[in-house]
């Protein structure tokens, strides 16, 4: 298969894929991969296969094609191709929750400075790295990466990247319980879709609607949450987007739990867990198990709640997800307090505070914890964040956290 024929077949596959004929598109692209003698064409078709498998939630296949693409990039001996393939390798590992590997591959991309493509892709690299740091609950570095990605999006007038970063920032602030910002950023993403997204994939609308649903639920606006989640789920079902279906099912379950309708919540948690397990979203599985734990606690079935916690703890420890561990210690504290088991209660109180210290989840001005309840936060240029009311009340000439970190221990 020559260069022109390769190009035609790739375009044919793209047309099929955009018409929701995914399996036919995959067959066309696989034939190109088998028969094409054009390395640049093979590189491009591998990119199509990587994107398609990512959207279907087939993350192990995505990683497999990303590894092949790295070999093709080396064969082409072009740093632009190599940068793009390392980004795909980073994104594959991000989807599989291999966050340390993601960060490592992202750093490799950023070190390949000077190439034409790297300047265009640095925003995507920063976004992927930010998502990985968020998965590890390293909040300051996550925010730093998201802000860099946003700067790249603005400088390059890349509205699609800006939309994705806004969704990640919504997730960031939802985890830290600044629900006003958790809603603001996905609303901004929705505005971008409405204003610029005529030719975009519907996945951008679905993604922004899902993050809005999460924020609305946290704010107690359950009817709004349900409307947004239903719109997101409708698009996810139309496009066979399994990862988003799993997240929507989790959100539906959380909404029902917020309404104390545990009987309706459980089957949705089970359906979400099934897809999360199938696609390998271990971070999502932790969220499902946290929701199920809270349902068991509503039913006062504390031993079943502890069983869910044990499974979630194993996953959180494996991923290095510190916020997940903190939430689990908090739930254990409540359970053992109810059971009157003082030793276990004390153990989890200690571990809870260790997690808070490790993540620096406290305001450097008032000393109170961040992420315990809904509070407006404000980040300084260094990406350390504080209670907004503390900054407004006390003001600051610099970051109190950075000043503390920069003080070297003296010699006695």
From TrEMBL:
<keyword id="KW-0628">Postsynaptic cell membrane</keyword>
<dbReference type="GO" id="GO:0045211">
    <property type="term" value="C:postsynaptic membrane"/>
</dbReference>
<comment type="similarity">
    <text>Belongs to the RAPsyn family.</text>
</comment>
<keyword id="KW-1003">Cell membrane</keyword>
<dbReference type="GO" id="GO:0008270">
    <property type="term" value="F:zinc ion binding"/>
</dbReference>
<keyword id="KW-0472">Membrane</keyword>
<dbReference type="GO" id="GO:1900075">
    <property type="term" value="P:positive regulation of neuromuscular synaptic transmission"/>
</dbReference>
<dbReference type="InterPro" id="IPR019568">
    <property type="entry name" value="Rapsyn_myristoylation/link_N"/>
</dbReference>
<keyword id="KW-0449">Lipoprotein</keyword>
<dbReference type="GO" id="GO:0043495">
    <property type="term" value="F:protein-membrane adaptor activity"/>
</dbReference>
<feature type="repeat" description="TPR">
    <location>
        <begin position="123"/>
        <end position="156"/>
    </location>
</feature>
<dbReference type="InterPro" id="IPR011990">
    <property type="entry name" value="TPR-like_helical_dom_sf"/>
</dbReference>
<keyword id="KW-0597">Phosphoprotein</keyword>
<keyword id="KW-0479">Metal-binding</keyword>
<comment type="function">
    <text>Postsynaptic protein required for clustering of nicotinic acetylcholine receptors (nAChRs) at the neuromuscular junction. It may link the receptor to the underlying postsynaptic cytoskeleton, possibly by direct association with actin or spectrin.</text>
</comment>
<dbReference type="Pfam" id="PF13181">
    <property type="entry name" value="TPR_8"/>
</dbReference>
<dbReference type="InterPro" id="IPR019734">
    <property type="entry name" value="TPR_rpt"/>
</dbReference>
<keyword id="KW-0802">TPR repeat</keyword>
<dbReference type="InterPro" id="IPR052480">
    <property type="entry name" value="RAPsyn"/>
</dbReference>
<keyword id="KW-0963">Cytoplasm</keyword>
<dbReference type="Pfam" id="PF10579">
    <property type="entry name" value="Rapsyn_N"/>
</dbReference>
<dbReference type="InterPro" id="IPR018293">
    <property type="entry name" value="Postsynaptic_CS"/>
</dbReference>
<dbReference type="GO" id="GO:0005856">
    <property type="term" value="C:cytoskeleton"/>
</dbReference>
<dbReference type="GO" id="GO:0033130">
    <property type="term" value="F:acetylcholine receptor binding"/>
</dbReference>
<keyword id="KW-0677">Repeat</keyword>
<dbReference type="GO" id="GO:0005737">
    <property type="term" value="C:cytoplasm"/>
</dbReference>
<keyword id="KW-0770">Synapse</keyword>
<dbReference type="InterPro" id="IPR001237">
    <property type="entry name" value="Postsynaptic"/>
</dbReference>
<feature type="domain" description="RING-type">
    <location>
        <begin position="363"/>
        <end position="403"/>
    </location>
</feature>
<dbReference type="Pfam" id="PF13639">
    <property type="entry name" value="zf-RING_2"/>
</dbReference>
<dbReference type="InterPro" id="IPR013083">
    <property type="entry name" value="Znf_RING/FYVE/PHD"/>
</dbReference>
<keyword id="KW-0862">Zinc</keyword>
<keyword id="KW-0863">Zinc-finger</keyword>
<keyword id="KW-0206">Cytoskeleton</keyword>
<keyword id="KW-0519">Myristate</keyword>
<dbReference type="GO" id="GO:0031594">
    <property type="term" value="C:neuromuscular junction"/>
</dbReference>
<protein>
    <recommendedName>
        <fullName>43 kDa receptor-associated protein of the synapse</fullName>
    </recommendedName>
</protein>
<dbReference type="InterPro" id="IPR001841">
    <property type="entry name" value="Znf_RING"/>
</dbReference>
<dbReference type="GO" id="GO:0007271">
    <property type="term" value="P:synaptic transmission, cholinergic"/>
</dbReference>
């Amino acid at each position: 298969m020559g260069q022109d024929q390769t190009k035609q077949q790739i375009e044919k596959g793209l047309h099929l894929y955009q018409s929701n004929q995914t399996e036919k598109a995959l067959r066309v692209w696989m034939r190109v991969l088998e028969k094409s003698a054009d390395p640049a064409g093979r590189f491009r078709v591998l990119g199509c296969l990587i994107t398609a498998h990512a959207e279907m939630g087939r993350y192990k296949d995505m990683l497999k094609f990303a590894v092949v693409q790295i070999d093709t990039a080396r064969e082409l001996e072009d740093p632009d191709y190599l940068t793009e393939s390392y980004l795909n390798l980073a994104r594959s590992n991000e989807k599989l929750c291999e966050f340390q590997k993601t960060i490592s591959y992202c750093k490799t991309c950023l070190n390949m400075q000077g190439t034409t493509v790297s300047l265009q892709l640095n925003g995507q690299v920063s976004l992927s790295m930010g998502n990985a740091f968020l998965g590890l609950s390293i909040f300051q570095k996550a925010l730093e990466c998201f802000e860099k990605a946003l700067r790249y999006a603005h400088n390059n007038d890349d509205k699609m990247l800006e939309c994705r970063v806004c969704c990640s920032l919504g997730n960031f602030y939802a985890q830290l319980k600044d629900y006003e910002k958790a809603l603001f950023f996905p609303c901004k993403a929705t505005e971008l879709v409405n204003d610029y997204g005529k030719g975009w994939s519907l996945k951008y609308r679905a993604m922004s609607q899902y993050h809005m649903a999460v924020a609305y639920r946290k704010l107690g606006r359950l009817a709004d949450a349900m409307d947004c989640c239903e719109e997101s789920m409708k698009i996810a079902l139309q496009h066979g987007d399994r990862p988003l279906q799993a997240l929507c099912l989790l959100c539906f379950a959380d909404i029902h739990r917020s309404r104390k309708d545990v009987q309706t919540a459980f089957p949705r948690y089970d359906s979400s867990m099934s897809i999360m397990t199938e696609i390998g979203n271990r971070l999502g599985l932790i969220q499902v198990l946290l929701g199920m734990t809270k349902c068991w606690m509503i039913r006062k079935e504390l031993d079943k709640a502890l069983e869910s916690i044990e499974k979630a703890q194993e996953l959180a420890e494996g991923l290095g997800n510190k916020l997940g561990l903190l939430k689990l210690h908090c739930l254990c504290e409540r359970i053992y307090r109810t059971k009157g088991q003082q030793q276990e209660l004390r153990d989890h109180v200690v571990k809870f505070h260790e997690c808070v210290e490790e993540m620096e989840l406290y305001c450097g001005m008032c000393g109170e914890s961040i992420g315990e309840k809904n509070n407006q936060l404000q980040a300084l240029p260094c990406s350390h964040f504080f209670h907004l009311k503390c900054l407004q009340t006390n003001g600051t000439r610099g970051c109190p956290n950075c000043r503390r970190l920069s003080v070297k221990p003296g010699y006695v």
